Amino acid sequence: MGTNWQPLLAQTGGAKYRALVDCIHLAIKKGELTQGQKLPPVRELAYRLDITPGTVARAYSILVDQGTLTAGVGRGTFVAERKSLDLSGEKPDIIDMRSPRIPSMGQETLIREALRKVSNELTPNALMRYPERQVNLPARLAFMQWMKDAPLGSYTVDDLVTTHGGQNAILHVMQSVLRGADPVVLVDAVTFSGFRKAAELCRARVVGVPWDGEGPDPEALERLVQSTGAQLYCTSSEVNNPTTRIMSQRRRREIAGVALRHGLHVVDDDCYHTGQHQGESFRALLPELGWYVSSPSKLVSPAMRIGFTIPPRAWVGDMLRSVQFSHFGVSSILAEVFAHVMTHPKLPGIIDSVQARINSDLRIAVNHLGGYAIRWRSNVPLVWVELPVGWRAPAFAQAAEAAGVEIKSADEFTLRDGQAVHAVRLAMNGQIDQGRFEEGVAIVRKLLDNPPRSFTT
Question: Which of 342, 364, 383 is the last residue of a domain?
Fold first, then answer.
């Protein structure tokens, strides 16, 4: 098909790039644009419509991100095949703020380069064998270099265990520690849902620990350990997901004291590692009971499905057995790619750029939402918004989705029998145009400003 199609831009309102997006969606729906049809080049369509090339490029970019269009360097822009549209998982015109999307600032290039390098340098028959622990040594050394300034306590490269990401690591910790017919796992009252899901896979009961201004309530934690016989407590001392709260150093030591008195294992999930730590990890405070977990997913790329655990030294063997019996270890290809990327001289600059975009998005969010009770931290791609009277978290999330924005309700971070929390979490999306991101934040602000009138207490 040719490139003669031209939208009637004057018939739509709002921002010009949004009007063009709407026109293209409508043309595809009506059959005016068909699968595989080539759209006019950016500059040509801009000239026809008397708008800037940047406006057209922005509209095309949004549609490519949605999977509505496809584009290739030197080929042009085309209507996506129906198979591509069906498999994309994207909803047209929805602004996704459910989970953090790391901006691509050059790390994709490093990963592709690493894949080529690894494929060319692997020894003969390396792709015909199961991975061996020694093969992961470069990845473990790269992790130690990455975390060289982190307060993780004393450990060696032999203490490190590789897994398929941080979530996989948490599951293996539970499989290593939990014993008995009715194991109990303690988690923070508002926390990452992955803790709960991993515990459920291990057929463990999950009980919530309340927080106060400094972190988990140590007296409540002690009562719960005594009443439930809990063997494991999962938390994040540096960045609580979703609230972004940090545990004070004094509180960490109080929690460590409770753990020591009762033999309670503590998992310290640091997957939102920002490069700086505000205090000692539980691995440092509890050498015999503390477990540290991290991965590059939230800072470099979630495509590198590799995570690292530092168990208490006496538990390294148990963790290795759990990994071995589960999946025979992390692929040597993946381990080599991680080592290449994490030791590349360009990576620090890339991480700086990633964090700069995160912080830029955070400024947009804070500027729009700062009149409400919000929590946020530099370099952390999350904003926690406490809802004003009139809103309930599930209803607010549903209203936001109806208005074109996907966010997470507090219900996704609380236990089923826990106290209701009227808040939502916004995640920064560095993979969409920043103007589009700001539109989404503005939609959230408008909803906050206009709670339902029918609300009754």
Answer: 342
Angle formed by the axes of helices 434-449 and 347-369, nearest 10°:
30
Tell me if the pTM is above 0.85.
no
The answer to whether 215 and 245 are in contact (CB under 8 A) is: yes
Same domain? 196 vs 307: yes
Torsion of CA 347, 351, 353, 356, to 10 degrees: -170
- 141 and 274 part of one domain: yes
Cα three-residue angle 158-164-168, rounded to 5 degrees: 95
Do both 332 and 393 map to the same domain? no
Amino acid at 338: F
Q: What is the mean pLDDT of each run of 10 residues along the chain (457 residues)?
A: 65 68 86 88 88 85 81 80 49 84 94 91 77 89 96 97 96 97 97 95 96 97 98 98 97 98 98 89 98 96 95 97 91 93 96 96 97 97 96 92 94 88 96 94 96 60
**Rounded to an integer, what distance in angstroms lies between the CA atom of residue 105 and that of residue 96?**
19
Is 3 domain-assigned? no
CA distance 45 to 57: 10
Please state the domain count of the chain: 3
Q: How many CB atoms lie within 10 A of CB 398?
A: 12
